Amino acid sequence: MVDAPANQPIRSYTEFWPYYLREHARPETRALHYFGTTAAVLAVLAALATGRLWIALLALVAGYGPAWIAHFFVEKNRPATFTYPIWSILSDFRMTWSWATGHLGEELVRAGISHERR
């Protein structure tokens, strides 16, 4: 497990990924992220399918709404999006894909998340 030094910026995505997972340690937080990420993708696809690009704006609300609710009320931490926006959105998709394909458990173990929180 790679940790960034306390109060030091994370300098690589290799350092960021385990940090991101630890910031999403509670299963409820991750579930709200899966929901939001899926809803955002569906909104973008709907916008493309219908030609109504304004629907794509719903992707922002659909994606960030549940995620921020999870951070503020479930995990009680600050969303990584505020500090690392690109790595954070990439990690939302990576975490959702890892969960959907059954590989998230091993990622959580590598990030040091205890069995009770998986």
Please state the overall shape, judged from the principal axes of the Cα atoms: globular
Instruction: Determine the N-to-C terminus distance.
Output: 17 Å
| Low-confidence segments | none
Q: How many strand segments?
A: 0
SSE string: HHHHH
Give the arrangement of secondary structure elements:
Elements: H1 13-22, H2 27-50, H3 55-75, H4 85-100, H5 104-110
Helix pairs in contact: 1-4, 2-3, 2-4
What does this structure look like?
This protein has 118 residues and is mainly alpha-helical. Helix content is 66%, strand content 0%. The protein contains 5 helices and no strands. It has helices at 13-22, 27-50, 55-75, 85-100, 104-110. The protein is globular. The relative contact order is 0.18.
Short description:
The protein is mainly α and 118 residues long.
